[in-house]
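Dear colleagues,

As part of the handover before I leave the project, I'm documenting each prediction I ran so the next person doesn't have to rerun anything. This entry is a single chain, and its sequence is reproduced below.
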Amino acid sequence: MRRCLALLVLAAPVLLGATPAPTAAPGAAVGAPAEPGQVLLLVVDGMINPASADYIREGLAAGAERGVAAVVIQLDTPGGLLESTKVIVKDLLGSPVPVVVYVAPRGGGAASAGVFVTMAANIAAMAPGTNIGAAHPVEAGGENIGGDMREKVENFAASLGRTVAQQRGRNVEWAEKAVRDSVSITEREAVQQHVVDLIADSVDDLLIKLQGRTVEIQGRTVTLNTAHAAVQRYDMRLRQRVLDLIANPNVAYLLMMAGLLGLYVEFTSPGVVFPGVAGAICLLLAAAALQVLPINYSGLGLIGLGAALLVAEAFLPSFGIIGVGGLVAFVLGSLLLFDTPDSTIRVDRGLIAGMALTLGTFTAIVGWLVVRSQRRRSSVGAEGMIGERGEVRRVLVPAQRVKVFVHGEYWDAETDEALDVGDTVEVAAMQGLRLRVRRPAAG
C-alpha cells in the first residue's frame, strides 16, 4: 500500500501536466472572462459523431462564458451520423456567440454531414483547394440506403438543408441539390453560388477578413472585431477523444467481437488470463460506443446468443449443430445491430463475413481439439498403465511374482511366463496396486 501511495504522489505532477486545456460544460463556470478580441479555435478532423457533437457544444459554451469575439470551427470531415449532425446544427443556430466554420486545411472538405454544419454557421469560409457537397444520405459503409427508408431519410436531409440555408440566407436550391443529386463544388464555386461567404488561406487570414462583418446573434446584430484577436485552441477532452475513435459502427463492432473472442478463449482454456482481461476491456469500450450509437437490441441479443452457443459447442457433443446455430444467430445479429428506424449506419458486410469465418474456424479447431482429447487414451490411473513397458528388477518366490520398474516407480507384478532380471515386460492389466505383466509381442 505504501508503494502504491508513493507512486501516486510521484505520478501526480505528470498526470496534472498532461491534463488538456480547461473545458467548460454547458452552464459551468470557467473563471474570469478572456480579453476582448479573443477567438476560440475548435478542430474537427474526422467523422461527425456524438463525440464531435459534444465537443462543439462544450466549445460554444466555453466561448460564451469567456466572452470571445467568435468561435472558429476548423472542419475537415467525410460526413457522419445524421443524429449527431442535427445536434450540431441546433447548437450552431442557437449559439450565443458568433460561429465561423472554416473548411480546412488544403485538400480537405466538408462532405455529407459537413455540408449542414458548414451552412449552419454565422459565417462559412473555405481554404483554397477544398470542396463541399455530396450530402446524399448513405449508410456507414458508403452503400445507398435501400427500401422505403431511403426516401424517408433523403426527404428529411433535404428539408434540413433547406431550413439551414434559409436561416442563414444561403443558396437554398443548391442545398437541396447537394442532398438529392450529391453535387460537390470547389471553394470558388461555393463563393460564387453563395454557399459560403469567403475564401481564406489560413486562420490568421480568416480573422483579418472577418474584421467588421456583422452577424445576427439571437436577435441582435454583432460586429466582429477579430483582426488582432488572440487565437486560443480548445482541444477535446480525453473522454471525447476516446469516444471519437470508437464511435464508429465498424470500430464498435470490432471491439465487441474482440471482446467476445477473448472471453471465448478464456472460457475454453481457463487460466490463460490475458485473453479474458483483453476481452473484458474491449467489451467495456464497445459498450461505451454502443451507448451513443443507435442500436437494435434484438440484434445485440442475437449476437449474445450466438456467442453463448459457440461456447457451448466446445463442451457439448452436438456434432456441430449448436455451433452452426450459434453462427446463424451471430450473423443475423450483426446484420440487425444498427437496423433502427432512424439509423443510416450499419456494419460493413465484408467485416461481418470475416468475423463469422474467423469465429467458425476457431470454433471448429477448438471442437476438433476437444474431440481428439476425448478419444486419446488416458495417461493416468489404471487405463494409463495398460500397455506401458517396464523392466524386471527382481524375481520373487514363487516365480510368478516379480518386481518391475514402470513409469519411474517399482511395482509388484504377477506373470504366467518365466522372466529374468532385466527382461522387458508390458503391463496387461492392473488389479489394485498389483500389475499383471507379460512379455511384449514381437515387433
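The first strand starts at residue 39 and ends at 45. Residues 20-239 form a domain with the 2-enoyl-CoA Hydratase; Chain A, domain 1 fold (CATH 3.90.226.10).

All the best with the project,
I.
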